[in-house]
Amino acid sequence: MGNVIAMSRNSAAAATLSPSQLASAKARILEAAAEMFRTHGYDVSMEAVAAAANVSKQTLYNQFGSKEELFKAMIAERGAAMRAPLKAHALVRHPRDMLTDVARQYYTHACSPHEIGYYRMIIGASQQFPEIGAAYYEAGPKEMLEELSNWIAREERLGRLDTGGDSKLAAEHFLGLITAQIEARGLLGVGTEMQPTEIERRARYCAEVFMRAFGPESLLR
Amino acid sequence: MGNVIAMSRNSAAAATLSPSQLASAKARILEAAAEMFRTHGYDVSMEAVAAAANVSKQTLYNQFGSKEELFKAMIAERGAAMRAPLKAHALVRHPRDMLTDVARQYYTHACSPHEIGYYRMIIGASQQFPEIGAAYYEAGPKEMLEELSNWIAREERLGRLDTGGDSKLAAEHFLGLITAQIEARGLLGVGTEMQPTEIERRARYCAEVFMRAFGPESLLR
DNA sequence: TCAGTTTTGGACTGAGAAGTCCAAACGACC
DNA sequence: GGTCGTTTGGACTTCTCAGTCCAAAACTGA
Questions:
Q1: Residue A92 pLDDT level (bands cut at 50, 70, 90)
Q2: Which pLDDT band holds residue A140 (cuts at 50, 70, 90)?
Q3: Structural domain tally of chain A?
C-alpha cells in the first residue's frame, strides 16, 4: 500500500498517483464498496471497505453517514451501469440474428461471474432492504423485458414473428431460455464459466428454439 | 396446531404438553431453525432460534455443537424433502400433458414464496459455505434436470419429441421456460403470488412453446 | 507563509451475538 | 421415594462491528 501523493476531493491536479488514488475519495469509496459488497455480501465491515478504498474510516463516515447509506448509494450508482442491454439494434436484421445477439450479450455480460456475484448480493440484501430488490428489478430485468417485448411486438406487426399476441410472455420466455439454469448455477456457486464456443452454441440454440416456437411458417426452417 | 401428547427424546411416554413440545427436542429445533433461517437468513441469532424452538440455549448447543453445525444439519434434513418432483409420471401420456403437469407442479411447489425464501437463503449461504450451494444444486435442480432429460430422451426414441439429440439442453430450456422471471421476481422480493388461473395459463403456455419447438411435425398443431 | 479545511490513525463506546458455565428444577425409570 | 441424566434460565466471557471522538498531520487556496 505504498503511496505518494494524496489528492483533494475537488481538484483534478495532475500528478503521478497510484491508480486507486486517481479518483476522488467519494468515487474511490463507491468503487471499493461495490467490490467488497459484491464479494462478501452486506456483511463486510466498514473497516474493510475503508481499507479497500485506501481511506480512513472517518473519511468514509464523512462521505456516507452510515453503512446503509453507503450501500444504497453504491446500488444507485451501479444501477446506471446496467442498462441499455438491447439498444442500438435495428429492425432491419433477421429476428434470429437479433435474438442470437441478445443472448450472446446476455451471456457475456449479465451472466459473467462478476455480474452474478452482484446479483447474489442484491438478492441477499433484498431481504433486509426490500426496496433494493425492487429497484434492481425495475432498472434491470424489467427494463430489458420491456424492450424485448416491444421489439417482439414490432416484429409481429411486420409479420416476422407470431406469438399469438402475448409479446410480454414471449419476452419472458426468451429470457428464460437464455438464463436457463446458467444463472441458477452461478448463484449457487457451481457455475463453471462458459467458454466462448459454449456461449455461441447456447446463444444460437436459444434463438433457434424461439424461432421454432414463434417464427412464422415462412421462416421456420 | 392443537396437540395432545409430548415425547421425551428417546421414549414415547404420553403426557399433556404444549403443541411445540410434541416432537423431540432435536426435531423441534430443526424445524424452528429452518423457519428462522429461511425468513431471516444466516444472520438469525441462536437465541432467536432457541426461543422459536421453545428450547433453552443450552439444549440447543447440546444437540448441535455450533451454529454452523445446526445450519448444515437443517439443510441436510430439508434436502430430502425436496426430491421427487417428477416421479410417478408414466410414459403413456401425451408429452404436452406431461410437460404441463411438470410446469404446474413447479409453480405450485418450487415457486411458492415459501420455497423461494428457502432458495434465497441457500444462495446467501453459498457465499459463506460453498459446499451448501453445491449440495443444494445436486439434490435439487440437477436431479430434476436429469429426470427431465431422461424422459425427453425416451420420448425422442419413441418419436414423440425431436430435440436434435440434445435432451440435456432441451431439459434446461424447459426449466428455463417455466421459471422465466418468476423465480427472479421472487428472489428480489417483487414477486406477486400467482393465482391458480395464472399458473394454469403459464403451465400450458410453457408446454405449448416446448412442443412447438421440439414436437415432431405430426404433433405440431 | 498562513489560515481553514480535510484526512488520518487510533482509541473508545455501546450493542449484539456466539458460546460457556452453573446451580436449581424437572422428568424418567426403578 | 430416590437416583441419574437432562433441561432450564440466566449470568458471564469474548469478539466483532457500527459509529464517535480527538489531536496531529496534510493539503488547499490565497
A1: low
A2: confident
A3: 2
- Output the domain CATH number for residue A103: 1.10.357.10
For strand D, the positions having any atom within 7 A of a protein Cβ are 6-11, 16-22, 26-29
CB-based contact (8 Å) between A202 and chain B? yes
**Is A10's pLDDT higher than 70?**
no
Is the C-beta of residue B54 closer than 7 Å to nucleic acid chain D? Answer: yes
Cα→Cα distances A213→A168, A175, B208, B221, Å:
15, 14, 8, 11
**Of A220 and A100, which is predicted with more confidence?**
A100
Mean pLDDT within A98-102: 91
- Tell me if A130 and B189 make a contact (CB, 8 A cut-off): yes
Same domain, B54 and B98: no
For residue B65, which nucleotide's C1' is closest to its Cα? C19
Q: Which three cell numbers stand for residue A211?
A: 424461432
Residue A83 has pLDDT above 60, yes or no: no
State whether the beta carbon of B45 lies below 7 angstroms from any atom of strand C.
Answer: yes
Of B20, B48, B65, the residue at which a domain comes to its end is: B65
* Rounded mean pLDDT for each run of 10 residues along chain B, 221 residues in total: 33 37 76 94 94 93 93 83 55 83 89 89 92 88 90 90 90 93 92 90 94 73 41
**Is A21 (CB) below 7 Å from strand C?**
no
Q: How far is the CA of A70 from the C1' of C4 (A)?
A: 28
Model pLDDT, residue A87: 56
Long-range Cβ pairs for the range A49-56 (8 Å, 24+): A53/A20, A53/A25, A53/A28, A53/A29, A54/A1, A54/A3, A54/A20, A54/A21, A54/A28, A55/A25, A55/A28, A55/A29
- Domain termination site, one of A65, A85, A118: A65
| Whether residue A23 sits in one domain with residue A112 | no
Assign A3 a pLDDT band (cuts: 50, 70, 90): very low
Residues of A in contact with B186 (CB under 8 A): none
- C-alpha–C-alpha distance, residues A42 and A40, integer Å: 7
Nucleotide nearest B10, from its CA to each C1': C28
* CB–CB contact A177 B176 (8 Å): yes
Q: Does A219 touch chain B (CB under 8 A)?
A: no
Indicate if B134 and B53 belong to the same structural domain: no
Nearest one of B46, B85, B39 to B62, comparing CA atoms:
B46
Contacts of A112 (CB under 8 A, 6+ apart): A193
Looking at residues A126-130, what average pLDDT do you find?
91
Domain that holds residue B159: 71-219
Nucleotides of C under 7 A from a protein CB: 6-11, 16-22, 27-29
d(C-alpha A78, C-alpha B187), whole Å: 19
What residue in A sits closest to B172 (Cα-Cα)? A180
